Amino acid sequence: MSDTHAHSVAFVRKTEIPPAPPPASQTGIVKWLRENLFATWANGLLTIAALYVIYLVLSVILPWLFGGVWNTSSLAECREVLQGRVGGCFSVLTERWPQLIYGFTYPTDQYWRPNVAFLFMLVAIAPVLFFDLPRKLLYFTAAFPFVAYWLIWGGSILVPIVAAVGIIAGYFVFDRLNKSSFAAGFFGAIATAFVIWYLGGFLIPEDQSGAMLSPVPSRDLGGFMLNMMLGLTCVSLSLPLGIALALGRQSDMPFIKWICVIFIEFVRGVPLITLLFVASVMLAYLFPPGTTTDLFLRVVIMITMFSSAYIAEVIRGGLAALPKGQYEGADSLGLDYPQAMRLIILPQALKISIPGIVNIAVGLFKDTTLVSVISMFDVLGMIRGPILASTEWNGVYWELLGFASLLFFVTCYGISQYSQWLERRLATDHR
Amino acid sequence: MSTETQNQLPDTGDLAAVDQSAMKVSNEVAISIQNMNKWYGSFHVLRDIDLTVYRGERIVICGPSGSGKSTLIRCINALEEHQKGLIEVDGTVLSSDLKNIDKIRSEVGMCFQHFNLFPHLTILENCTLAPIWVRKIPKKEAEETAMHFLEKVKIPEQADKYPGQLSGGQQQRVAIARSLCMKPRIMLFDEPTSALDPEMIKEVLDTMIELAQEGMTMLCVTHEMGFARQVANRVIFMDAGQIVEQNEPEAFFTNPQNDRTKLFLSQILGH
C-alpha cells in the first residue's frame, strides 16, 4: 500500500491479510519479565540481587519451618531430636496449646464451653457483617452476649437472664416514652434497667456450687481466648459509644458538647497503659465501698473508653466530610433529628469512616495484649510468664512469638479484607 | 440606557406552551411574611420583607447574587432562622419549636441548586423515605405514590438506580418528585437550573411548568427569565436584602420602574 500511496490516493484491497500472532517477545511471560524485572541493566541487577536476598532468607526459614519438631515434651528433648540440625521446636505449641488458647487456670474439663461460645460468636457476627443474610439471625446476635457470658463464666443462669430482662424492659420503656420526648425515654430506660437489675440481684443465689455450669472467675480466663473476648466486647461497645460522642461533640447544647469534648480530649491524651493501671489498681475507689468489680469488667471499661474516643474523632471526620446539602435535604423533607441522623447522615458518614474505624479496631485488638502488664494472662502474658518461665521451655522465643504474631495477623488481616469488601459493597456514588 | 433594552421581553425559547388563564389564584393566603429581618452576624441580609403569597400563585424571585433571594425562601421552611418579624405558612406561625418546624417542612417542598439527593439510597428509596418515616405511610403505598410521581417527571425507569448514575437534569427531576411525594401544598425552588447544562435546563423547566399548571403554589428563585415571563403571575426583584420591585411579568419586563431593576434587566436580557 505504501508504495502505491506515493503516486495515487485510490486503493482497493485484493487479498485478505490473515490474522497472525504477535511476536513472542511482545506477549506473555517474556514481555512481563522484560517490562517489570529487566527493563534496564540497573533493574536487571537489582532483580538478581533481590532474588539472592529472598533465597538467603528462605533458605534459613523454610528448613526451620518444615524441619521442626512437633512431639517432644521439652526444649532439651527437641535439641536431642534435632542433633544440631536447623529446625523449630514447635512441640511447645502442641504441648502448651490449651494454655496458649485458654490460659493456665481455666478448668481443663470445661474447654468445650469457650469452644461452643466461639462457634456461637461466628454465627452471631455473621448477620452484622454480611447484611444479605436473613435479618432474623439478628435475634441470635442479640441473645449471644448473654449466652456467651453464661458459657464462659458459668454460674447461675439467672445472672444473664436478669441482665437480659433489664435491657428488654428498658427498651420497652424507651419505646413508650420516646414518643413524647427522647430524654424521657432515654433516662426512663436506664432507670428501669437499674431497678430490674437491683431487684433481680436478690433472686441470684449466693452459693453457686450447684449451678448447671460450674462458675469460673475472671482471673482464670486467659490465653488468646482473653484477647478475643476483650477485642470483641470492646469493639462492639466502643462503636456505638463513639457515634454518640461524635454526635454529642457536634451538638448545639453546650452542656452535652463540653462533656463530650472533655471526655474525648482527656482520654486521647492519656496512654492506654496508664488507663489499664488505673483499671487494675485505682478504679475500685470510684465504685461504692464494699463492692468488688470484676477485673475483666474494669479492663473492658477502660479499653472501651479509650477506643471510643478515637472512633468518635474518626466519625467526626466523616460527618464533617458530608456536604451541608445532605443535612438540608433531610431537614427540608421534615425528618426530625434522630431520623435524619439514622437514615441520611450516619449511613454516609460511617461509610466514609470505615477505613479509620477498621484502623482503630485492628489497633484495639492488638492492644489487648497490653493487659499482660497488669498480670492478666492473655496469649502474650502466657508466653512471657508461665511458658517461658517453665524449666521445659525456657528459651523457645521464635516459635512462641511467631505463633502469637500469626494468630493476630490472621485475625487482623481478616478484618482488613472484610473492610475492603464492605467499602466496595457500599460504593453507590459511582464516582 | 436605551428604551429598546427596557422594553425587551425575555425569550421563552422552546418551553412548553402555557395557558396563564388556566392557572387560578385563589384569595386564600398560603404564606404571609410580615416585617421580616435577618442578620448574619452584624450583616443585615434581609430587611423589612413583607410578602403575601396566595394559594395558586407562581412567584419568581430574581436579583443579583448576594441580594438575599435564596435566604428569603430558605427562611420560609426554617433552613435559615429569621431574627425579627413574622412568617406564617399555611396558617402556622413559624416558631423555634422543633415540632412546629418539622410540621411546616413536611408541608413545604423544596428543590435545591445541587439537588441534595441522598447518594446512598436508590431513586425510589429517596422518594419513599420521607413519606414512610414522616407521614408513616405503609411502604407499599409510598412506593406506588413514588412511582406515580416518577412517571410524572418522566423517569420511572430509573427507579432502581442510584443518584450518581443519573444526569444532572434527571437528578433535579427526581428531587422534584421526591418533594411531591410528601404531597406538599407549597413548593420552593432555589435556583433549580443553575447547576445544569443548557440542554438539561429545559427538561427541568418543563416539569416545573407542568406543576404550575396543576395549581401548585410555587416560589422560584431563578435566572430563567423566559420561564418567569411564561409561568409566573408575579415577579419580585430583590437587591441588597430588600424587595425593590414586584409586578406582573409583562409589566415587570417591559416597564420596570426602579433604576436598579432596569440595570439588572438590561444586563441579563441585553445579550
UniProtKB/TrEMBL annotation, chain A:
This is Amino acid ABC transporter permease. Keywords: Cell membrane, Membrane, Transmembrane, Transmembrane helix, Transport. Pfam families: BPD_transp_1. It comes from Pseudaestuariivita atlantica. It is found in: Cell inner membrane; Cell membrane. The chain crosses the membrane at residues 41-66, 111-130, 158-174, 181-204, 224-247, 259-287, 299-322, 343-365, 396-415. One of its GO terms (molecular function) is transmembrane transporter activity. It comes from the Bacteria.
TrEMBL record, chain B:
Keywords: ATP-binding, Nucleotide-binding, Transport. InterPro entries: AAA+_ATPase, ABC_ATPase_HisP-typ, ABC_transporter-like_ATP-bd, ABC_transporter-like_CS, MetN_ABC_transporter-like, P-loop_NTPase. Pfam families: ABC_tran (PF00005). Residues 31-265 form the ABC transporter domain. It comes from the Bacteria. GO terms for molecular function: ABC-type amino acid transporter activity; ATP binding; ATP hydrolysis activity. Belongs to the ABC transporter superfamily. This is ABC transporter ATP-binding protein. It comes from Pseudaestuariivita atlantica.
